[in-house]
Amino acid sequence: MPDPLPFIPGYSPEPNRLLARFLPPLAEGVTLRYLERYSRPGDIILDPFGQSPRVAIEALFLGLRVVVANFNPISRLALSLEVNPPTEAELRSALTLLADLPKDGDRLENYLRDLYRSTCPDCDAEVFVDAFEWEAGEGVLREAEPVEKIYLCPNCGGPPKFRPTDDADRALAARFPAHSLDYHFLLDRVARADDPDRAQAEEALAIYPPRALAAIATVLVKLEALNPPAETHRLLSGLLVAAFDAACALSQERPKILTTSKRYRENNFFLELEKATGALAGVPAPDRTQALRDLLTPAPSTSLRAGSGPGIHVQAGPARDLTPLLPEGSCSLVISAIPRPNQAYWTLSALWSAWLWGREAAASLRSVLHRRRYDWAWHAEALQATFTSLRPAVAPQGKMVGLVSEAEPGFNAAIFAAADRAGYLLHGAAFCADAAEAQFVWDSPHTSEKPVLFNSELETAVDQAARHSALGTILDRGEPSRWSSLHFSAWRGLAEAHLLAAIPDEPLTFVNHRLEAIFRDPTYFQRLAPTPNDDSFAGLWYLKNEAALYALPLADRVEAEVLFELYSAKALDEQHAMQTVNETFPGPETPGKSLIMACFNSYALKNDTGLWRLREEDASLARLEELQAVQGELRSLAIRLGYSVAGANPQEWREAGQTIYLFAATTSAFISDYLFEPLLPAHRRFLVIPGGRGSLAAFKLRRDPRLRAALRQGNWVILKFRHVRQMAGDLQLTRATLEPAFYADPVEEVKQLELMEDSE
């Protein structure tokens, strides 16, 4: 069994890059770490999907020879603009060239701006609207009307105004009918009248407001007449794609299908072109695009240094067409952001490609127009075909790395099945549940025969491997785990045993059926706190037999590791610290980023340079002295109120041989140590912690229902150190006022959690 794979964290991707809401949001720096681990300068690196420009950018930074395959012209354009970024001045110059073209006796820019002309109702000044808000019947734009306008008034000044539309606004919108000549011009560019995909193209155009289609058609006609040089056309194409995206009525942040909501926004098309000049601009870099033949020729070793040499080749077409052009075993690493089905993006890509470059340019995307559904079984087969086609190009000791964002269970299952059935050996897989990100590493394909098992043997083997891996995840984590984590672990176990290749057909259906039986069996697992009539697998899962659990909860171990890192360094870089934590807890133990950050926020402060430093009051000696002082104050208060005191920590306040109050004081948020211990009989129990631990304790309670149940059942109350000091200093405090005083300064986060639970 391979060693657990540490999850590599990355930096948040730039939000304004072209097509950011469609392309995988791959964290920056992740590719770089895998490239450093599995390649050397000058190696040939293959990206068979070309979904994220980050892969190529970070490979080029290390001086690698990068080969990318992508059948989507729009994705290739996005990659080109990232690898060879234009300056804002170059983009503005290209836009000015377009905007200066004549239209109806005026400049094209003025014509486009006039499409959104309006009046400010506050001062009657003429304005150009940034966006109109429309109310529509679900999915039917032609029944809509603009109800609100958003604009900047040059006369009034100030921030953008939101005002109701008037009759003139509605009359202007009505000048653009749903099926105008512009509409038919754009439709014919995608599919002729006798084309079997015509109906699907019509559905795709229906997400555009008619005014936007009029603007798009006008610009495309002018662009063809301009016939600019290739580089200018590249820049204008990038600006137009950004505007095409902003002009449609898709309101979802990351749309997967072409649907519109009842209320949608119509953005000013020319304004979106102007905005794109800033969003697409970057730091100029040498164009290192090369022909494949030139790229395959090894560069002199003297030129191989970070940020230089040799270059990139982007193949227009699928990976299966590229692999025969590569020498056998030439790629030391295959690395890619693995795509997920996205009908919205693929269909829009077919539209935009045809609009910009003609129907022939969109030929590779024709199939997406008539395919209505992309299920995970179909996706697994498509991925398997690609992975299989790559086998001849992978070096004997090479690796394949898959980077996955939006890693939901069906997507993960499709990837595990595709790679295993294509003959790759799983080297490791890590999954960060709260970020829904997964990372896979496979060894180069093997040539052994697929295991042959009869039906009963196969079912038994699958059940045992999946159950063992899922149980192991809970045991390793020492706490309830999300369904997505257990599902990932079960599939990982099947891939490690190479059992997915043994399933004759439809592996996703077969395994999902077996997993349902495994998790419905109450012998091993229990689902915690399911809502009534909820028969899904969502939520948290735990062992049926808790006695089998031997590990401390992962949350406590992560807190201890973060505290150790803070004690060991004067200042910590967040990214480096997160990587260290993930290396300490690899594979199934991968903690969520939210847990790690909750620990940092509890113990440390971030300075102006972005480094974390331990709070002065959390230095070990200072906290130890404070802990001892709090225990002494509790003891003094007990004696003053007439209780006898037994024990140090926990401290018991006793009367007539009975424990009335019990106080467990700690400087950490390791509350499980106390909540899960056998209880001493007491009227009331108190966890006494520094105020800075309150939010971390509440975070742990929120993520672990066992802790919440133990808190309630044990009649525990959480007290702050400072409140104990205040009570000890209150000479008016009596036994009669003691109980209310305990609740006078609650840990706010925990109080809110308790109130929320009471209302459920």
Number of helices: 30
CATH class of the largest domain: Alpha Beta
**Envelope shape:** globular
- Give the uncertain stretches in residue-range form: 301-307, 755-760
Structural class: alpha+beta
CATH architecture of the largest domain: 3-Layer(aba) Sandwich
What is the C-alpha radius of gyration, as a whole number of Å? Answer: 31 Å
Q: What name does the CATH topology of the largest domain carry?
A: Rossmann fold
Assign the CATH superfamily of the largest domain. Answer: Vaccinia Virus protein VP39
- N-to-C span: 44 Å
Q: Give the spatial strand order of the biggest sheet.
A: 10-2-1-11-12-14-13
Mean pLDDT: 90
Q: In which range does the helix fraction lie?
A: 40-55%
Strand content range: 15-25%
- Total number of beta strands: 25
Biggest beta sheet summary = 7 strands, mixed
Give a structural overview.
- This protein is of the alpha+beta class and 760 residues long.
- It folds into five domains: 1-83 and 289-447, 3-Layer(aba) Sandwich (Rossmann fold), CATH 3.40.50.150; 90-279, no CATH class; 448-549; 554-614, Arc Repressor Mutant, subunit A (Orthogonal Bundle), CATH 1.10.10; 620-759, no CATH class.
- 44% of the residues lie in helices and 18% in strands.
- The chain contains 30 helices and 25 strands.
- Helix 3 (73-83) packs across helix 10 and helix 26 packs across helix 27 (705-713).
- The chain is globular, with a radius of gyration of 31 Å.
